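Figure 6 in text form: structure in, sequence out.
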């Protein structure tokens, strides 16, 4: 080995690492992930799919206050919108917990509480977009309607329209270019307004009705199928998401195109690593809600529930929760911006994440002068470097674009705030926050291996 090879850092493509039998494993893992993605388009659906996977692998439901013991495999569903799954290890809890924390909400279009209206013989639903989106990307694409309607009787009605081949779909119309001269002269952020993101749902009037006949007919159709009335929208959580399914992308099938990679391409590997984990450590996988809007609320990462769970485990296992937290470690499992050569001007080429470069470790995120960011310690990073290299994990480091171009945040700083060493680790993504995002299968599998190595 030359002095240059010894001294200089060089990123490698995962194609230089993953060959032969490993390639087959990656393809199989990616197929299972795509199936998971297709049935997990909302946080509620992701929790349900995750619970199904956990129960198939011997996990059982836990409630706060239950006694636990070494060897237990448990999960706690928080209001059906976030999930805590954990395995209880044989070593003392005061040696710390291994925590993998991802989020399971994605940008989307939520329906307003009074959404239904009619205009010029067409029926619409009003929306309020959720998370950071480019509004123009959500026009003229097929949309599906997902969510729940809670009735005054206490019953909850699940609604999914637009996913089956025989289902209708919905869309937001856009202005034809022949009449769009003024629209196209506007900045992209203003060409489509939030109030203009109204979903077209039908055009047939109810016979015999003279006013709002289309609106009434749309409500009649929903009532016939789901037993709901317009007032029930007041206690509903309904959202419009892309109707497309995850698909292999590229002639070589090396990539996956799909909705919600951010952050399900990290939450799924974190979950599968927990399931495969057999170490002596206690391991927790957190699948949190509300990250895209600041991690607020009792299902977001800012809630006290992780603290409560650590306290409960500590009481049950005779440990001091303060000591437990001080010795715990966390991977904030969230995506990174993959380098896109079509928009090279916003990236620092030597500090960006490359597709097929492996899972991405980000010392910090935030914006401008590292504002609103966790900044992991050098010692913690060194320990992870050793763990990943010893386990054959293919990984890389990156920042989220050039310093003054923008930035973003994750759940990392909220976990670090409770005295737990934390760093961001995730899959690089192209077209992040678009209705359809792109990841590489190699990077997805690298994330699974990284979380598994971390749990050891």
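Output sequence:
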């Amino acid at each position: 080995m030359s002095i240059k090879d010894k001294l200089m850092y060089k990123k490698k493509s995962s194609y230089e690492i993953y060959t032969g039998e490993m390639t087959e494993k990656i393809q199989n893992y990616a197929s299972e992930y795509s199936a998971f993605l297709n049935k997990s388009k909302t946080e509620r659906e992701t929790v349900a799919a995750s619970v199904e996977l956990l129960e198939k692998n011997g996990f059982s439901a836990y409630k706060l206050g239950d006694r636990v013991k070494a060897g237990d495999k448990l999960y706690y569903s928080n209001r059906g919108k976030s999930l805590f799954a954990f395995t209880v290890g044989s070593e003392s809890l005061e040696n710390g917990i291994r925590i993998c924390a991802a989020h399971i909400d994605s940008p989307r279009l939520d329906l307003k509480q009074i959404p239904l209206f009619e205009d010029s013989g067409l029926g619409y639903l009003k929306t309020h977009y959720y998370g950071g989106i480019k509004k123009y990307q959500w026009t003229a694409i097929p949309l599906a309607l997902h969510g729940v309607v809670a009735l005054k009787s206490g019953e909850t009605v699940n609604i999914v329209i637009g996913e089956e081949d025989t289902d209708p779909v919905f869309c937001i119309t856009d202005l034809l270019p022949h009449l769009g001269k003024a629209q196209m002269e506007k900045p992209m952020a203003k060409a489509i307004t939030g109030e203009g993101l109204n979903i077209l749902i039908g055009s047939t009037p109810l016979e015999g009705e003279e006013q709002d006949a289309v609106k009434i007919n749309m409500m009649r159709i929903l009532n016939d199928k789901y037993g709901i009335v317009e007032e029930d929208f007041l206690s509903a959580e309904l959202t419009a998401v892309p109707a497309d399914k995850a698909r292999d992308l590229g002639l070589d099938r090396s990539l996956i195109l799909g909705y919600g990679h951010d952050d399900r391409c990290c939450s799924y590997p974190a979950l599968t690593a927990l399931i495969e984990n057999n170490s002596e450590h206690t391991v927790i996988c957190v699948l949190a809600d509300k990250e895209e809007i600041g991690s607020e609320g009792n299902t977001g990462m800012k809630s006290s529930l992780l603290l409560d769970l650590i306290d409960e485990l500590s009481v049950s296992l005779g440990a001091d929760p303060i000591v437990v937290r001080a010795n715990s470690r966390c991977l904030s499992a969230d995506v990174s911006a993959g380098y896109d050569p079509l928009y090279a001007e916003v990236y620092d080429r030597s500090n960006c994440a490359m597709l097929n470069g492996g899972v991405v470790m980000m010392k910090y995120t935030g914006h401008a002068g590292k504002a609103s960011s966790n900044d992991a310690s050098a010692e913690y990073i060194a320990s992870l470097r050793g763990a990943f290299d010893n386990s054959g994990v293919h990984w890389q480091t990156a920042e989220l674009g050039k310093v003054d171009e923008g930035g973003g945040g994750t759940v990392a700083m909220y976990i670090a705030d409770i005295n737990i060493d934390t760093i961001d680790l995730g899959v690089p993504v192209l077209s992040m926050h678009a209705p359809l995002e792109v990841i590489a299968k190699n990077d997805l599998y690298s994330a699974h291996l990284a979380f598994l190595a971390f749990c050891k």
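Caption detail: Residues 7-106+259-455 form a domain with the Aminopeptidase fold (CATH 3.40.630.10).
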